[in-house]
Amino acid sequence: MNVATKSGTAVKQAVPFFMVANIQKSLDFYVAGLGFEKTNQWIDEGKLRWCWLQHGGAALMLQEYRPEMHARLASEGKVLGVGVSICFTCEDALAIYREVTSRGVKAEPPFVGNAMWVTGITDPDGYKLFFESPTDVAEETVYSE
Predict the structure, then answer these.
(1) For residues 132 and 125, what is the distance between their CA atoms, to the nearest angstrom?
(2) Homologous superfamily of 17-134 in CATH?
(3) Which 3 state secondary structure label does DSSP give 39?
(4) Which residues pair with 108 in a beta bridge?
(5) Domains of the chain by residue range
(6) How many Å apart are CA 20 and CA 123, to the nearest integer?
(7) Which residues are registered as beta bridge partners of 80?
(8) If DSSP codes are grouped into helix, strand and coil, which group holds residue 60?
(9) What strands, in cross-sheet order, belong to the sheet with 116-122?
(10) Parallel, antiparallel, or unpaired for β 17-20 and 58-64?
(11) pLDDT digits (tens), the chain, 145 positions
(12) CA 25 to chain CA mean position, Å
């Protein structure tokens, strides 16, 4: 299929938008635990409702469900974050692993898959985050300190 790209319409960035149960808990996890920086926010009736987080060239957004929506989803057995994974390509996934675990964040031990060091972290709402960096180490190698 030949699809011409129109001038000025090139996609620049994809930003995951996570709905969360407790925005302060999630914000603490991403900022204090993972090293993201809050660069924008929406305050509604004196409460943080939405924020934009940045870490290097990557970004994500958080927004807290209103209590009635969260209660409805819970009553329907719907769980936040299930089945959602985000892969962050970085310079050194091993350094990220060491950094976040030193802050008390639980992270999966890094392993080599598809010529990348990979470490996985699950956020407070069940969203799965993978930090990956290229390597020439043998496939299926597991990192040990």
Answers:
(1) 21
(2) 2,3-Dihydroxybiphenyl 1,2-Dioxygenase, domain 1 (3.10.180.10)
(3) strand
(4) none
(5) 17-134
(6) 10
(7) none
(8) strand
(9) 85-89, 128-134, 116-122, 111-113
(10) parallel
(11) 565 656 677 888 899 999 998 999 999 999 999 999 999 999 998 999 999 999 999 999 999 987 777 677 777 777 778 789 999 999 999 999 999 999 999 999 999 999 999 999 999 999 999 999 999 999 999 998 7
(12) 14
* The two structure tokens encoding residue 57: 């060239």
Helix (H) or strand (E) holding 84: none
Q: How is residue 101 written in tokens?
A: 């675990």
Residue 9 has, within 13 A of its CA and on its CB side, a CA count of: 5
Task: For residue 116, give both structure tokens.
Answer: 């990348």
CA nearest neighbour of 81 among 118, 121, 131, 139: 121
Our separate counts of H helices and E strands in the chain read 3, 8
